[in-house]
Amino acid sequence: MRNGERHQRIAYLGPEASFTYLATKSLFPNEELEAFSTIPECIEAVSEEKVDLAVVPLENTIEGTVTLTIDYLYHEADLYIVGDCLSKIQQHLMVHKNQKDNWQSIEEIYSHPHALAQCHKYLYYRFSSVPLQRYSSTSAAAKLVSENPDRCIAAIGNVSSAEKYDLEIVQKNIHDFQFNHTRFLVLSKSNTRLPVDHSEGKAKTTLMITLPVNVSGALHQVLSVFAWRKLDLSKIESRPLKTGLGEYFFIMDVHADENGAMMKGAMEELAALGCNVKSLGTYYTFLTRE
Amino acid sequence: MRNGERHQRIAYLGPEASFTYLATKSLFPNEELEAFSTIPECIEAVSEEKVDLAVVPLENTIEGTVTLTIDYLYHEADLYIVGDCLSKIQQHLMVHKNQKDNWQSIEEIYSHPHALAQCHKYLYYRFSSVPLQRYSSTSAAAKLVSENPDRCIAAIGNVSSAEKYDLEIVQKNIHDFQFNHTRFLVLSKSNTRLPVDHSEGKAKTTLMITLPVNVSGALHQVLSVFAWRKLDLSKIESRPLKTGLGEYFFIMDVHADENGAMMKGAMEELAALGCNVKSLGTYYTFLTRE
């Protein structure tokens, strides 16, 4: 928020204390945040201008089917990416404060099934005989623990869940893969750019490219367009359009501004090759405060 | 199972009546299926030879974080893919049989948050004022409905959940994207091939390739190795090795046998270019019975 302006309204994938909330709060500490319960609801909120921006997970999350974000952006909504950020997905073991000295004899552990899976090795080596209870979200699990001060049970979740429900974190960072990050996108109805005060230097453009036909080497030809111009790709992912029929689209992140001469040339050539190219905008990666 | 042999034991990502169960049952109708509660547990079961094979989702599922499968295969387990299959993810609205004439006045709808998200448009247009209740799995939601014959409530889930809990499907295929499929992998400890009686014709090889350095055009160079040999790719996906540091590995599906002359040549050249190449094996896509 800049001086004299109203607070921006930011939709995020809830519930409150979710990993998306953590990322959104870090990006927009002074704005008005509103939780929605699904990715499509977040996308529609910004599409219908009920909010100014929406923050949704793109990759590797426990909270949403990530392909839903891509499919909605490709098939449904006319939105732009105005920023992205990477957040560490850190899972902690937490108990009620009354139980903080008893945590080594926990009788049950509650969390979202995906969070339990992410902590598989820790749970296997440390609590192999303790029953795991599957819950609809990590924060719902934390809430349950907070409501049962007399039971020696634990939840697995993030710092924000522990704070919201006043739980004691007794083991930090119990997830298996330490380099695990989730990427979040900031979506807007207009192709503007967020004011950059703490971002990584390079501008990035996300393209969705449909190949004209599924011929051997078509992707190679598409990449040639970027390669000889020394335009660097930081992500490429194929998605089937109609499974089994050999039609694909590709999501690519290119480290360049869509208004630059090289990118304009590349996009014109892709169109001339018969590709359908949709730019989701040029934006910067925001650094989250951790 | 062939005549005279023991039943094979197949691990799958549960709970029973999950989408993975449906795919596994279709692939192995006569074998002994065993549910595990997380993807890592399925992978370890086959790795430690507690079971013969494991079936896990790779893409676009509501049951597991898909990247967990890729990360475990890359970083942890020494397993091979011996088959894959594509299954339609079909979501249905189901009620207790006592309530089958009252379903238009449902008071609450229960399901996994991701399944609710997949049916967003149907729910928005048809039941916008009905509260949605998030549950840990679609089959847990079906179980709840089956235990409350007097309440006018519904669950969203697959055919198998309806059958298991004897519910009435009152609206079929209420998911937003009709071409939605999930891909499942069949994993084995040995690089054998499943006997093919009902598969798509072409052999496929999955490679995990780490680029030597993150230079502009390195991926293009890698694809050249496949393109001039007319080796067709049906999937490519980049995954960060250490986020922010610009190191990637790529998962590629190539329509060719790893023992063929062209593939051997391609893999030797990739190694000569400084790439780290790991083949997860050559296999066929099984057609599921629907």
Automatic annotation (TrEMBL), chains A, B:
Kindly state which keywords UniProt assigns to this record, in alphabetical order: Amino-acid biosynthesis, Aromatic amino acid biosynthesis, Lyase, Phenylalanine biosynthesis
Which EC numbers does the record give? 4.2.1.51
Tell me which residues are marked as the site Essential for prephenate dehydratase activity: 182
Residue ranges annotated for the ACT domain, each copy included = 207-285
Task: Show the PROSITE patterns listed in the entry.
Answer: ACT, PREPHENATE_DEHYDR_1, PREPHENATE_DEHYDR_2, PREPHENATE_DEHYDR_3
Pfam families according to UniProt: PDT
Q: Mind telling me which SUPFAM superfamilies this protein's record contains?
A: ACT-like, Periplasmic binding protein-like II
- Provide a Gene Ontology MF annotation, just one: prephenate dehydratase activity
The cellular component terms of Gene Ontology attached to this UniProt record, alphabetical and capped at eight, are: cytoplasm
Q: In which pathway does it act?
A: Amino-acid biosynthesis; L-phenylalanine biosynthesis; phenylpyruvate from prephenate: step 1/1
* Residue ranges of every copy of the Prephenate dehydratase domain listed in the record: 9-189
- GO terms under biological process: L-phenylalanine biosynthetic process
> Reaction catalysed?
prephenate + H(+) = 3-phenylpyruvate + CO2 + H2O
Quote the InterPro entries the UniProt record gives: ACT-like_dom_sf, ACT_dom, Chor_mutase/pphenate_deHydtase, Preph_deHydtase, Preph_deHydtase_CS
Name of the molecule in the record: Prephenate dehydratase
* Organism of this sequence: Ureibacillus chungkukjangi
